[in-house]
Amino acid sequence: MPVITEAAAAAGRPRHRRSEVTDDAAAALGFYDSTPFYQKVIAAEGLSNARRTC
Q: Which of 12, 16, 17, 38 sits 20 to 30 Å CA-CA off 47?
């Protein structure tokens, strides 16, 4: 979440804290890994997959 972290710092706010992802939630997020639009969003954030966003 580099963009969110940088934006928080620029606004003088604390950085975002990641939350735990259950296996069910991780499976549901896998849908985004196969969608071209979301693949671009995930890559723009410097992440390897959607599960890394939480």
A: 12
Q: What is the pTM of this model?
A: 0.48
Q: Is residue 53 part of a domain?
A: yes
Task: Write the pLDDT tens digit of every residue in 3-40.
Answer: 777 888 899 988 766 666 677 777 788 888 888 998 99
CA distance 54 to 18: 5
C-alpha span between 52 and 19 (Å, rounded): 10
Query: Residue 26 and residue 32: Cα distance in Å, rounded?
Result: 10
Range of the domain at 26: 21-54
Structure tokens at 43: 């890559």
pLDDT of residue 11: 92
